[in-house]
């Protein structure tokens, strides 16, 4: 489990996408504007918490890929 919540992050740290066994990622209450395409490499990810991120522009193709997997 990776808690990166409430850190005023503006980007998802690139190192996170190397954690291929990561199952839960909590990014809530940050200032993240985009989710990187490399998040798809997190094949074990089952929970992604993006609550209370007001300016997030997430690519629709990432969401559709994760929902179809």
What would you note in describing this structure?
This protein has 69 residues and is low in regular secondary structure. The protein has one domain (2-68). The protein is 13% helix and 12% strand. It is built from one helix and three strands, in the order E-E-E-H. It has one helix at residues 60-68; strands spanning 2-3, 24-26, 47-49. Strands 1-2-3 form a three-stranded parallel sheet, with no helix packed on it. It is globular. The chain starts with a strand and ends with a helix. The model has no long low-confidence stretch (mean pLDDT 81).
Number of strands: 3
Strand residue percentage: 5-15%
- Cα-to-Cα separation, first versus last residue: 20 Å
Structural class: little secondary structure
Low-confidence stretches: none
User: How would you write the strand order of the largest sheet?
Assistant: 1-2-3
GO cellular component, one term: cytoplasm
Protein name: Leucine-rich repeat and calponin homology domain-containing protein 1
Keywords: Leucine-rich repeat, Repeat
Organism: Lates japonicus (Japanese lates)
Topology:
Layout: E1 2-3, E2 24-26, E3 47-49, H1 60-68
Parallel strand pairs: 1-2, 2-3
Give a short overview.
With 69 residues, the protein is largely without helices or strands. The chain has one helix at 60-68, and strands at 2-3, 24-26, 47-49.
């Amino acid at each position: 489990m990776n808690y990166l919540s409430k850190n005023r992050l503006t980007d998802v740290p690139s190192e996170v996408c190397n954690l291929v066994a990561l199952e839960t990622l909590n990014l809530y209450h940050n200032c993240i504007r985009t989710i990187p395409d490399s998040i798809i490499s997190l094949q074990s990810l089952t929970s992604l918490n993006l609550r209370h991120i007001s300016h997030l522009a997430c690519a629709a193709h990432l969401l559709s890929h994760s929902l179809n997997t």
